[in-house]
Every structure is written in structure tokens, then in C-alpha cells.
């Protein structure tokens, strides 16, 4: 009986090593579709928050540690072209996201929502030494894949389930963010 158990353990270890080796050998995340993540944080106070640098102007702001909304709360994203030549991203949230957006913005008037996105292009491979939550500038010749894009000021509660903001991004980056969010929505609906 012990010999069968030993033989089984050897095969189990060999199978686990083969599976683990196959996954670890690539070392990169390769995407066949464009996907974007969205994190909406609430502005916090210095004692309860961490400092982030918003937009390419690197404006320091305090954010609470956990996002109030993520891409899981998104039902649709749209790139809105304004008559004056500017553009905005409009994110429409699902039922859960709409309730959270309404509650958080109603109770936090006078603060900012701080928006982080990760928006790698199709086929992008994540470097081994860099996580997906980094907002550091890209190396020369490389596309920007993430950033603290906006900090809209909360003047009133947003009860319509939609958030519109002007991102600190090029039109191509904003379009990639919108496509990636909509791909996330369509893939989770399947």
C-alpha cells in the first residue's frame, strides 16, 4: 500500500511541476483583446489615506485605500466628443455601481473622486519587474498603459448612475480605455 502511495505522490509532484513550470515560464501577461481597469477612489484626509500624483501634472492628492467603484460596476463606457474639440469619458454603472456612486457623492460633496485606469494596448506584455498598478511614465517609445487620469470635484450627488470626466489622456488613450472597459463588460456578460 505504501508503494502505491509513494508512486502516486511522485506522479502528483511531477504533474504539478509541469503545470507550474508552464505557467511561470512565460513571465508575461499577453492579451488577445484590449481590456481596461477602472478604479474610482474617494479623496481622503492625510491620516487615513495615501498620497498619489494625479494627471501628468503630478498633482498630489490623498486617496482612501480602497476604491469605491471598479470595472466590475461598469455597464457601459462612451467617449464623448464635445463641440469645442475636447472629449470626455462617460461611464455608466450597473445597479450596484449606481447606488454606490449616489451614496458616496451625496455624502462627500466638496471632495474629489480620483480615477485610476490601466489600459494596455492589444497584445501588450507586462514586464516581469513592474506591476499593473504602477502609474510611472513609460519608457521612451513605449505606450502609456496606466495612470491617475482625473480628479473631478463633487459638487452634488450623482444619482443618475453615470460619471463623466475629462481624462488626462490622448484621444487614442481615451478610446483604448473605453474599448477596454466595454470588452470587460461584454466578456463578463457571457
Describe the structure.
The protein is α+β, with helices and mostly antiparallel strands and 190 residues long. It contains three helices and nine strands. The strands form three sheets. A four-stranded antiparallel sheet has the order 4-1-7-8. It has a three-stranded antiparallel sheet with strand order 5-6-9. It has a two-stranded antiparallel ribbon with strand order 2-3. The protein is globular, with a radius of gyration of 21 Å. Strand 5 (74-81) and strand 6 (87-93) form a beta hairpin. The chain has helices at residues 2-26, 95-107, 171-189; strands at residues 37-42, 50-54, 59-63, 69-70, 74-81, 87-93, 113-118, 146-150, 162-165. The chain has one domain: Gyrase A, domain 2.
Structural class: alpha+beta
Beta fraction: 25-35%
Any idea what the CATH architecture is? 2-Layer Sandwich
Number of helices: 3
Inertia-based shape: globular
Low-confidence stretches: 3-30, 130-134
Mean pLDDT figure: 80
Write the topology of this structure.
Blueprint lengths: L1 H25 L10 E6 L7 E5 L4 E5 L5 E2 L3 E8 L5 E7 L1 H13 L5 E6 L27 E5 L11 E4 L5 H19 L1
Antiparallel strand pairs: 1-4, 1-7, 2-3, 5-6, 6-9, 7-8
Amino acid at each position: 500500500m505504501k508503494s502505491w502511495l509513494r508512486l502516486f505522490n511522485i506522479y502528483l509532484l511531477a504533474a504539478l511541476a509541469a503545470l507550474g513550470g508552464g505557467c511561470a515560464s512565460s513571465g508575461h501577461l499577453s492579451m488577445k483583446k484590449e481590456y481596461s481597469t477602472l478604479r474610482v477612489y474617494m479623496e481622503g484626509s492625510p491620516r487615513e489615506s495615501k498620497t498619489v500624483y494625479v494627471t501628468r501634472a503630478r498633482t498630489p492628492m490623498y486617496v482612501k485605500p480602497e476604491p469605491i467603484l471598479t470595472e466590475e460596476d461598469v455597464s457601459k463606457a462612451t467617449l464623448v466628443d464635445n463641440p469645442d474639440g475636447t472629449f470626455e469619458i462617460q461611464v455608466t454603472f450597473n445597479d450596484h455601481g449606481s447606488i454606490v456612486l449616489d451614496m458616496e457623492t451625496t455624502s462627500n460633496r466638496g471632495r474629489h473622486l480620483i480615477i485610476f485606469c490601466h489600459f494596455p494596448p492589444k497584445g501588450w506584455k507586462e514586464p516581469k519587474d513592474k506591476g499593473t498598478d504602477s502609474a510611472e511614465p513609460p519608457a521612451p517609445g513605449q505606450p502609456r498603459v496606466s495612470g491617475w487620469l482625473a480628479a473631478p470635484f463633487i459638487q452634488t450627488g450623482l444619482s443618475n448612475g453615470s460619471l463623466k470626466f475629462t481624462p488626462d489622456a490622448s484621444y487614442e488613450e481615451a478610446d483604448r480605455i473605453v474599448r477596454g472597459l466595454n470588452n470587460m463588460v461584454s466578456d463578463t456578460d457571457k
